[in-house]
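Possible race condition, two jobs.
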Amino acid sequence: MAKTKQTGTKKPASAKTGAKAAPAKTTRAAHAGLAELSGPLLKLGGIKPADGSWPKRTRVGRGHGSGMVKTGGEGGKGQTVRSGGGKGPSFEGGQTPWARRLPHRRGYSQKARDIGHFRSEFAVVNLHDLAGWDPSVEVTPQTLKVAKKIKALRDGVKVLGGSKAGRALPPGLRFRDVTFSNSAKEALVAAGATIEGE
């Protein structure tokens, strides 16, 4: 039995039973509205790292102007690597330094060194500390220590010219084995004090 051809127009595919309708194409106006709502669109071509996160590579050995010649940033070896290495400011390349070329006297004074070596350290007493001193008792390092005017004898006792208002020196004081500053000595001599064994 022969098949007969159907006449008429074909139905669109969307008209078939069970077929889903194709989504409508988005217009330019819709894209513009979406851009206004969400801000600028992110594109792969616009992605770049943060500034400074990829520093420029140091190129070693590319001329003296770069500062990366010879050791190439690795530093030296030997004396220049050691902590505290190098020569002092007075080093003159091995020749006799300036401080040793000068004509010197024979011997040096050690008084400029710290107190613990050669300089004398005195126990200090001011004039106002002797305001209530008994003139019948001689002022010596030992009597000053007994009277608790000083804590230790050290290398000697030195009287300084410190004074306070209302604390005058008693007349007739006698001193022995004690050193004085110039102002203290003048004040004691004016007060009639006797100084022995200075």
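Job #2 (started ~2 s after job #1):
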Amino acid sequence: MLSHRNRFHGHGSLRYLYQHGTKSRSRDFGLYYIENKNRTHSRFAIVVSKKVHKSAVKRNRIRRRIYEIIRLEMDSIKNPYDFIITVFTPELVDIEPAQLKKLLVELLVKEKLIS
């Protein structure tokens, strides 16, 4: 599980990120990010809407799987950034963990956020 200091708290910072962040998209994920020089650690939020899956259990499973990948890849993020990762496809519930990691890391590498 991702530590408390690496998560968002409240909607104000999410609103700022949606308005001023850089947007990127792949087939499975959307990514908003902005560098945050006021912090020493990156923050993350994962958004999985009801349109992706009606079951809260499955939405939470997707969210937990992505948070775990982020936790393991945290050291390779260059600077402190704020991230919102939006999930678009329900197939991520049953996808293999290695493939899910590959999809997410490819998106972050494409945006030159990790090395």
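The longest strand covers residues 29-35.
Logs attached separately.
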